[in-house]
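dumping this here so i dont lose it again. seq + smiles for L263DTV3
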Amino acid sequence: MPAPLPLPAPPLPGVDDRWALFLDVDGTLLDFTDHPDQVCVDSRLRELVEDLYGALDGALALVSGRSLDDLDDLFGHPPWAMAGLHGLELRGADGRYRGVHIGASRRSLVRDIANTVAAGLPGVLMEDKGMAVALHCRTSPQQFERLREQVQSVLPSLAGYEMQPGNMVIELKPEGMDKGSAVAALMSAWPFRGRQPVYVGDDLTDEHGFATANLESGLSIRVGSREPSLARYTLPEPAAARAWLFRVLHALKHGALSHAHSSASGGNA
Ligand SMILES: O=P(O)(O)OC[C@H]1O[C@H](O[C@H]2O[C@H](CO)[C@@H](O)[C@H](O)[C@H]2O)[C@H](O)[C@@H](O)[C@@H]1O
């Protein structure tokens, strides 16, 4: 098969553009760490997202595999819209919550099964996210295929759940929602409605977000080099994504002049 054509760097918003920005968290805004609890949102990043939120009149959302509680802790209970657990939890720009509900006994069954899988695979870490669980192998990447097989083999005992592979992780989550559906749901309401979706993400789960952005004549931006991807633009790593977002903010605040300058100077950082 021929190698895929290299993707271009994303543009900046022009004066007449009305973007709605959808941002994945791990691997996009944040660099990966060995353990999910080791990440931290520094004040510069927090301010950047806050300023983008203001410059876009509120049309900004985080779209993550983390839970809303986790995102609230990381970002300090922000006012912007957020999709957690790949869209299973959704908090709109008006602060209203919509989410899937899974009862305590089901959650505990999923947790028990995931713990058993992790116990049989040295180096695999179980992250309990409530109605979903993540089985991480970042410190033991050689376990990934065995982990995938093990999770596949327990799926029949978990009706209504599906397997979601990601970057050094296999998740077990309730079926029926993904990041693309979350973006579509947010786009149907104020302040997103009528704007152009711009989705930035790195992982397999973000492919759903890219598909929705592409369908709605938006921009799909892959962070990293994972292939294949539906994304039409790329940025090499989270640092480049953050640098591009600073330039987006500048363009939103200062309009066409900075856009022309940024296009002419090229690069992402
Ligand atoms: O959709 P995202 O915001 O990208 O969240 C996806 C998963 O991110 C976290 O795991 C990933 O980041 C960890 C910290 O860097 C890393 O240790 C792990 O290997 C990555 O898979 C989070 O822990 C998961 O719950 C999210 O689903």
